[in-house]
Write a structure and sequence with these properties.
10 helices; 39% helix; single chain; six-stranded parallel β-sheet; two-stranded parallel sheet; globular; Rossmann fold; 17% strand; alpha/beta; 299 residues
Length: 299
């Protein structure tokens, strides 16, 4: 029976990984407040890896406060990059596969086409730069790894855009949402299921699969259209709480300034990923979003 260690058990992806991995073996789940689960104390995490000696470590822990990272850059780099050195070394020492989750924010958001895995990164904020540095640490360590870049993550568990729009939709009659940032909403369930499937294949001997992947479903949208989709579909599902919102207006990013600059083009090319699965087994983003919305609505 395989042994798995999850870091970041309370996050959106970590939560779903517990479900996905339970079918495949013994799972040790660690959060920030557990001994050996805090990436700000990476030496203790490395000890936990050495003691448990897992077949695979799923690092779903990260510093994700994008705006706060602009002024808290030391902590962002510690958790997203520096801490990964002892973690990756511990994985290499025990022969564990390291599965790590990165972001579309490693790119600058220029252009209109999806970025492939070999596109040159150029982050525009501290969060993206720290995640890119973390990727490099893992690759340079020489450990066996799968690095998954994903985008616009949401799920049933944790804070995310779908829940924010549903909450605001109950008290606001009108919402202003940026419409010039384009990307692919990606459910934590989808991330957990796909990354687990590839990890199991690597553990079964398909070492050629090691490397970096863009882990997103098909299609694209912008935040404003995503918000409209959420409200429309929530109403169609008879969402149990009253939605007062009547108008969702699209605005440019410059009218909604944030401490950290956001990339306008967050499109990720997922053709490399799709080539590893049966045709049409990866669906459009709204298929997965409807699953989450249905669960949130209690249907």
């Amino acid at each position: 029976m395989a042994r798995f260690l999850i870091l970041g058990k309370n996050g959106q992806v970590g939560w779903e990984l517990q479900r996905a991995l339970a079918l495949h073996g013994e799972v040790l789940c660690l959060g920030r407040h557990d001994e050996g689960g805090d990436l700000s104390c990476p030496e203790k995490v490395a000890i936990a890896i050495s003691n448990f000696s897992p077949d695979a470590v799923f690092n779903a822990a990260a510093y994700t406060a994008v705006d706060k990272a602009e002024t808290d850059n030391e902590e962002a780099y510690l958790i997203n990059a520096q801490a990964l050195q002892p973690v990756a070394c511990a994985c290499k020492k025990v022969g564990a596969l390291l599965i790590h989750y990165s972001t579309d924010y490693v790119f600058d958001g220029s252009g209109l086409t999806p970025r492939t895995e070999d596109a040159i990164p150029s982050p525009v904020n501290v969060y993206g730069a720290s995640k890119l540095a973390g990727e490099k640490v893992i690759r340079d360590s020489g450990c066996s790894s799968l690095i998954f870049r994903t985008s616009w993550v949401y799920g049933v568990h944790g804070k995310n855009f779908i829940k924010t729009i549903l909450r605001l939709g109950q008290t606001k009659e009108s919402l202003n949402v940026v419409n010039d940032q384009v990307g692919t909403p990606t459910s934590a369930e989808f991330i957990a299921d796909v990354s687990t499937a590839l990890a199991m294949r690597v553990l079964s001997g398909e070492k050629s699969l090691l490397g970096t992947y863009h882990l997103v479903p098909n299609g694209e949208t912008n935040w404003c259209d995503f918000a409209k989709w959420i409200i429309s579909n929530a109403r169609a599902l008879n969402y149990p709480l009253t939605l007062s919102v009547q108008n969702i207006k699209g605005i440019p990013s410059e009218e909604y300034p944030t401490p950290a600059k956001r990339p306008l083009n967050s499109r990720l090319d997922n053709n490399k990923l799709k080539g590893l699965f049966p045709k049409q087994s990866i669906h459009s983003w709204d298929t997965y979003a409807k699953r989450v919305l249905t669960e949130l609505a209690g249907v």
